[in-house]
Input
Amino acid sequence: MTAASDATTDLTDLDFTAYADSRRAMVDDYLAAYMARRADGEGFDKLKEAMSYSLLGGGKRFRPVLAIAGCEAVGGDCEKVLPVAAAIEMLHTVSLIHDDLPAMDNDDLRRHRATNHKVFGEALAILAGDALITEAYLLLSAPDTAPPATAMAVIHEIAHATGLSGMAGGQSLDMLTAPDEIDEALTRQTHHAKTARFIAASAAAGALMGGADPETVAALRTFGENVGQAFQIVDDILNVTGDAARIGKSVGSDANAGKATYPAVHGLPESRRLAAEHIDAALAAVQHLGEAAEPLRAAARFVIERDR
Amino acid sequence: MTAASDATTDLTDLDFTAYADSRRAMVDDYLAAYMARRADGEGFDKLKEAMSYSLLGGGKRFRPVLAIAGCEAVGGDCEKVLPVAAAIEMLHTVSLIHDDLPAMDNDDLRRHRATNHKVFGEALAILAGDALITEAYLLLSAPDTAPPATAMAVIHEIAHATGLSGMAGGQSLDMLTAPDEIDEALTRQTHHAKTARFIAASAAAGALMGGADPETVAALRTFGENVGQAFQIVDDILNVTGDAARIGKSVGSDANAGKATYPAVHGLPESRRLAAEHIDAALAAVQHLGEAAEPLRAAARFVIERDR
Output
């Protein structure tokens, strides 16, 4: 791990930013071109507009970049993983659109813009989410996305991470938990389901697209699981300490709503220590991979750098 | 077509009812067993309860029965198509849960019971829909559901029929169309997207699971497309003429809302003629199939029998 550790000293953040910028641009271009040719002239313009508004409205593209880095880490081709990276971003976008709805978090602002339902109304925001979930699986099952066996494994990996025991399940815990029920175990479970599983699946899907063997896919999953836990802890921390301009939504909104967050349960210093511990575990999981895994390692380090 | 025509005389309705009852029982049993073992002890009980409430709450199971009939029509095994039939019913259930939401049709009653959001609240109803879409693709991509190439074809067929250009797109037209914009073409397009495509995909997916060649799959799709158009026309008719006990929701609710319906655009007699014309086209599409396609033909005839 010496080479990887040396790289942390100075250039990591810069390296990851440059890498992430280039890969994010590829994802953005792919998504824009894909949506432009979808259902053209079929008369569903308003729904398509609502989908595109949130899907093409910027964002870090952290999950797709991780899928690409996961693919490249195992020697795969960046171009080939783009449809999978795009599908992953579609599913992430669904969680943003639906979580912002009045019945859920009731947010007016997302990524410095009006939320989907503020622009298109609740009905279209609900349908845009439904259609984006479906679009992800349409893309993942397209004949030119991947060989059938690979596509099937990718779909199973991603569906497992975003449904009942994944993102949707985590959001249900987030919505249903009363402030006096919040404890360490529940906070961990919510973060695991809502965030970590999907980030793990993104890295693992990248590895699958890169043709990795099952052990390597599992290593990428462990990597992503730990990055995901750290990612959510840092998000919780930034929600307490950050500024609205940086995170693009109201500071303190989670704490005000009495939600399960790491700072609320563990305090800030212990939350920071736990985040760092998860990043160490993530790096250990991909320690045996070669230099091609550097962007992946840089991504992991970047997650805690955000909090500085 | 003589054998098929002869069968219509007396026993068709009885035959289809018996066939549909037996296949519906298989789908119900499969869904109940599947949901019982899903995410057991993982702590997502409330979301699972909301999903199960609507999924296991009865219904005609018309689409899954059609998938089974489509599989059997091409010589396939009824048992093997059950996971696909179950996934189809999950996706249909999503449309019921989400269409009933206050932001959409705002219905309190569905299948003679309180709608999902009336029991579980809007947030959980939205998430139950999201999780059921995802669950369908989790099931369709499971290693023991189908060989990878078949599974990918089924997923692509179904995703195409339920997303932007399918069920979600159709519902968006239903929501957005102003009463003075309703005309023949738009009514047809809405029905096509909202109902016919998914019924077509159900029959085609059944044929795919039965190992049919592309021409036969296409014939089943044409069959389902026409059955679907007739199905929606008859639904429109029953909404005007039927009684609430029979259809399980308020009579006249579509007409009151100024929606695109066949009786509103064409009048009742012409609507009935058009429905019959679609059933004739459906029967013609599967005319060349043998006796194994009888349940399929009976299903088509049953659609217009409902209106008598």
